[in-house]
Amino acid sequence: MRPTHVFLLIVAVLSAVTAEQARFDNYRVYELHIESAEQLEILQYLEEHPDGYIFWESPVQTNMDLNLVVPPHKYSDFEEFTTKLNLQNRLMIKNFQEVIDNERPNKNKRNGFGWDDYYSTAEIHAWLDEMVGQYPSILSSTIYGQSFEGRDLKAVKLSHKDGNPGIFIEAHIHAREWISSATATWLLNALLTSTDAAVVDLAQNYDWYFIMVANPDGLEFTRSNNRMWRKTRQPSGILCVGTDGNRNFDYFWRNGGASTNACSDTFSGPTPFSEPETAAMSQYYATIADKINVQFSFHSFGQYLLTPFGFNNSPTPSNNVDLQQIAAKTVEAIRATHGTVYTFGNSAQLLYVTSGSTNDYFMGVHGTKLSYTFEFRDTGTHGFALPATQIVPNAQETLNGLIAFVAEAKALGYM
Question: Which end of the chain is more exposed for a tag (fewer CB within 10 A), N or C?
């Protein structure tokens, strides 16, 4: 058989295998703490050869926590190697499929678009089109590109008047982080409909740019095939698919915290901007960068508010004192809403090294002064499968955080 035919056969077999939704019955989720170089080396090898294990974070350095999904047939193996390595661990989720099954309690009770369930790309875009139709004088949309599978990449802008400071929000670059786009759509709806004076002030005196679904192909794959898919869907090797969009931006690309293994969840891509989704976002941002005072990336999970830079041996931004002061006010307001505790700080120091991220790129290349990543709820009880019943409270505390954020940024002269 010719090599080409072998490749096509492999692709056909893989397509058949992935045609059904993956299940995680009795899969356990453990939080691990990496202390030693030996532990790190073993976990890095395991990520390269997972044999059923699923890493929610890549092991990139010592003194970091990560979440590992352990399938039933690996229980004894997991116990053996963690004991041998003296690897600290704690059980976070006993049966991950139960968490997924309870993620969408209202999926069969829908009554139009809302915030008690999670939605597809097409449904989100249809709602955005409806909102543009209802508010044509202040809301507009832009198709800024196409995904690898041909889906529209859509941005919307809310503007009441010329000359407003700009706030840019991008969500759902990681496919499995459903809460990110749900929160972004809720925020836009609040800016359009709220009568609260503080929210009206945000809506009328600032221009808001939203990318609700930065990775639509990945989102759809999480809905149809594998709820835990993270990457894009462009083939990245003979047997591997996808690139981590938040490791694919061209600023200190592949300089720590990004994998060269095409099968890894943190694969940086073969080149910067190899993905049509990231290339299109960078091109769109370049057209508005001079209007943007603040940039936010919406992610989950962990309850963090993170600041640049994240790459290896990265410098501290010149305005780091202001970045942390604004973050402190933001997380204070978040906690005052529903008691949710966020931790804030530099992403590399607080969590782990990353490179090729949107935050680093927008600040480092375009000079955006205030650039932050939200890691939304929770701290591991549900992980990426946050119940839809938490969409509204998560969004409410985020909005209150943004009100405090803008007030402090304005007081410091950034707005």
Answer: N
Burial of 414 (0-12, 13-18, 19+ CB in 10 A): middle
CATH of the domain at 182: 3.40.630.10
Assess contact for 225 and 238: CB atoms under 8 A.
Answer: no
Residue of 57, 375, 397, 408 with catalytic role: 375
| Bridge partners of residue 208, in order along the sequence | 158, 167
Q: Are 168 and 295 in contact (CB under 8 A)?
A: yes
Assess if residue 331 is contained within a domain. Answer: yes
Query: The pTM is what?
Result: 0.94
Query: Does an H or E element contain 298, and which?
Result: strand 292-300
Do residues 213 and 156 share a domain? yes
79 is annotated as an active-site residue: no
Read off the CATH number of the domain in which 83 is found: 3.30.70.340
pLDDT in tens, 349-399: 999 999 999 999 999 999 999 999 999 999 999 999 999 999 999 999 999
Same structural domain for residues 89 and 188?
A: no
